[in-house]
Amino acid sequence: MNICLFSQSLFALNLGDAIATTSRAGFSAIELACTAPHFDPATARGQPERIARQVRDAGLSVAAFSLFNNFTDADRLDAQIDAVAMYIRLAPVFGTGLVKLTPGPPGSADAAERHWQGVSRALDALIPLARDHEVRLAFETHMRQLTDTLASSLRLLEMAPADVVGVTVDFSNLSFAGEDMAEAIPSFGDRIFHTHVKNGHIDAEGGWHFHALDRGLTDYAEVISLLRRTGYGGYLSLECLGEDARQRPFETVCRDVEMLKRYLG
After folding, report:
1. Domain residues of the chain, as ranges?
2. Tens digits of residue pLDDT in 76-112
3. Taking burial as the number of CB atoms within 10 A of a residue's CB, which of 128, 155, 206, 262 is the most buried?
4. Distance of CA 207 to the CA centre of its chain
């Protein structure tokens, strides 16, 4: 397993500074957040070669493009599909073979069949293009979206071929949903294409609170052990959120990556 940094950890910085800071913090790879203030669609359309060059000049590879989609809104579906298609076509320019997606709200408990149908339409449009460009699609296990639980994430995987569509397992998000890592990680098995690593807790009112990697609902010693048993060899993408990341982005990233290295050690 290799460590990369999700650039959302550095939303306090512009994209150029985030790329430079990722390198300065000792990472060899970056997951590019495909939204403002980083690699948003306007930047992707207008300046992809310049950004790809910045990444290379910083000594980094691109672990994944990370998109924030909403395939459950029928009025926006075609535009969402077009945006994903653009990033799939750009993936070879950046030397990456992975595009991380989100399905969209609502949470699975409140979802209707029409929400799942939107995801199905998106898959039908995007899977052939992904195959053509040798790109895999990984849906994030995400709070208050269709893939907020183990069961709903597995339902999405059943809708798509295993060679193209998998999951980005966000361990903290699943912990917030009350899932047991000892069940979730083996259940996903080789459909785990990517991961997000952060920690925190959820309060009685449903509010999210993010902390240092060793504080929260997720036991990363257990997570690493379970991933090794499944044979996972992809990226552990560090995602630093909360007030620490906003106020002290570089120091927070350095703090958490050292903790993650200790868990791996």
Report:
1. 2-264
2. 999 999 999 999 999 999 999 999 999 999 999 999 9
3. 155
4. 21
